[in-house]
Design a protein that fits this description.
By secondary structure, the chain is an alpha/beta fold. It has helices at about 40-50, 55-60, 70-80, 95-100, 145-150; strands spanning about 10-15, 20, 30-35, 60-70, 90, 105-110, 110-115, 120-125, 130-135. The protein is built from 5 helices and 9 strands, in the order βββααβαβαββββα. A hairpin with a 2-residue loop joins strand 6 and strand 7 (about 110-115). The two termini are about 20 Å apart.
């Protein structure tokens, strides 16, 4: 998925088992943020940055949806533990991470494995990708201000 591409209509299933559709956000900008794993330090810092600045993001015309390959139960615990005010998509079949090109080979301590590249897609009111904040740019503790600072 690149800047200028139309995002898919069906985004996935959230933590409540409900289907998330792009058209539900028509007329608003969507912050679709992909992160590796619930309840890890970087992912928690990122989610909390978005939570703490949620009203500012909403005031600026944004809606927020998180995506990881964790299941619905894991997302429910993550949301409860950190009082997250936005839905999380359980992309357990990895269809969305693959469609957006964020499922890739990673390496930690010399071990190679497949995982989600922390990436945020800003989708405009017409459902088109307007901006991409890549894995090397994202500062987890300041992520909301990175989104607001256009």
């Amino acid at each position: 998925m690149n800047v200028g591409d139309k995002a898919p209509e069906i985004l996935g299933i959230n933590e409540k088992g409900e289907e998330i559709k792009l058209s539900s956000y028509a007329g608003r900008k969507l912050v679709l943020y992909f992160y590796p794993k619930d309840n890890t330090s970087g992912c928690t810092a990122e989610a909390c940055s978005l939570r703490d600045n949620y009203s500012a993001l909403r005031k600026a015309g944004y809606e927020v949806v998180g995506v990881s390959v964790d299941n619905e139960k894991s997302h429910q615990k993550f949301i409860e533990k950190h009082q997250l005010p936005f839905p999380l998509i359980a992309d357990t079949d990895k269809s969305l991470v693959e469609q957006f090109g964020v499922w890739a080979e990673k390496s930690m301590y010399g071990r190679k494995y497949m995982g989600t590249l922390r990436t945020t897609f800003i989708i405009n009111e017409e459902g088109v990708v307007e901006r991409i904040i890549g894995p090397k740019e994202i500062k987890t503790k300041e992520h909301a201000s990175q989104i607001l600072k256009v």
